[in-house]
Amino acid sequence: MIDYLAHTPAPGTLAGLAGPVGPAGPGRPDEPLHVHVHTYNEHTLVLRQNKSVHFEAPFLFLLFGNERALLLDTGATADPALFPLRATVDREIAEWLARHPREEYGLLVAHTHGHGDHIAADGQFEGRPHTTVVGPELAAVTEAFGLDAWPEGLGTVDLGGRIIDVVPGPGHQDAAVVFHDRYTGLLLTGDSLYPGRLYVNDADAYGRTVDRLLGFCGARDVTHVLGCHIEMTTTPDVEYPRGTVHQPDEAPLALTTAHLRTLRRALDETGGRPGSYPYGDFVLVHEGPTRTE
To answer: For strand 224-227 and strand 186-190, is the pairing parallel, antiparallel, or unpaired?
Structure first.
């Protein structure tokens, strides 16, 4: 058995995580069928969908515990011929089990929120043995994680010695949640905070989520804040146009808890007024309750 509490937080690396993922030019796809896999540490993988398949290129996270693994989000494309997520996850689990043998090992599939570019490949896991897929609807999320006081309170997931905290996170989407891995200290914020366009569906709920996260982080070890997209360049306030499929100068994925404080200030300063407001490493976008991604 692996002692996931032996290191708090356990070290890992994000070096080389960001970089061009997708076609180098028109008609020149760069491994369009590949799911890019980055090893943060022995028990933590960061996956990314290729921009050649879908411009959103979401990040996904695969966390290994003693009894089961957790896959957060399933990307923007359902077709396994274009986006072989199930095959990639099965391969990575098999390789992990070869190094850490278990007679039986489960998989939990969950989501940071229910927009289409984060749940599209759920169907690839239908019928997979020892697998539970948490539906993206609010009722399914609150039941799975014990969030009876939604949107207040905390939930937990035990992967077998590896505990994941679950924090309610509505504001971008009604059933959004934020995951905190006690083993690595990673705070996985989905589309609530990342280096890109932060679409605000409900400004009041978003503000309460940020306040909730600031309080949570004040009492926890947080090493990195990792969202699910990169849409900013390395130049502050400069974003790639929506739909960009080649980002050779993209910003790093990792943010910090200081960005949560900046986000709180941004919400106060913009006051829910429609428009786009750059804040260095992200752009706050107030557009009302119509977004589906």
So the answer is: parallel
